[in-house]
Specification:
mainly alpha, 188 residues, single chain, 7 helices, Rna Polymerase Sigma Factor, Chain: A
């Protein structure tokens, strides 16, 4: 078997996949350990990647080497894993902070448009706005919590504010540029 090419061509059988697994597992595993920095997570992702590849084995096309195809699946699996871990971390952070204090019903009426528009933002931008204006986090704290550079946090905040201003137009709802908390009612 040549590296990356399973024997048997397009009509590969289970035995061909088993040989591919034996030949490529160590390289795929090392790749994911390098990406994730966690041996246990890399092992889980490697197994998930091989399972996904096995299920899709019949769709593999010979125009790409099987090992490259397998690495693409493994890398995408690791990226998804990291994304889920980041979201879990943000969710834990929000749970630890608890619910915000009860708001005045008048504030709720004024902010309902803002809340609707906030929910329409891409998730990463909405998370940045909520962490900044509802919880009062700095860019550095948000960057640490989200695992991204501070410049990325700043860009997400600026883009979200620009979008909200455009969508809300001349609304009386302020969209602050400062660190002060934005009065957003709790989501029930």
């Amino acid at each position: 078997m040549t590296r990356g090419q399973p024997p048997g061509g397009r009509d590969c059988e289970k035995g061909d996949f088993d040989r591919l697994y034996q030949a490529t597992y160590p390289r795929v595993f090392r790749t994911l350990v390098s990406m994730l920095g966690d041996v246990a997570a890399a092992e889980d992702c490697t197994q998930d990647a091989f399972l996904k590849a096995f299920r899709a084995w019949g769709t593999w096309k010979q125009d790409a080497p099987a090992e490259a195809w397998l690495h693409r699946i493994a890398i995408n699996t690791a990226i998804s894993y990291r994304r889920k871990q980041t979201l879990r971390g943000v969710g834990e952070l929000v749970r630890r902070l608890g619910r915000p204090a009860e708001e005045d019903p008048a504030d709720h009426a004024r902010s309902s448009d803002l809340l609707c528009e906030l929910r329409r933002l891409p998730a990463k931008q909405a998370a940045a706005v909520v962490l900044r204006h509802l919880h009062g986090y700095t860019n550095r704290e948000m960057a640490t919590a989200l695992g991204v550079p501070e410049s990325t946090v700043a860009t997400r905040l600026a883009t979200a504010k620009r979008t909200l201003r455009a969508r809300l137009g001349s609304s009386s709802i302020p969209i602050p540029d400062t660190f002060g908390p934005l009065r957003v009612p709790p989501i029930e």
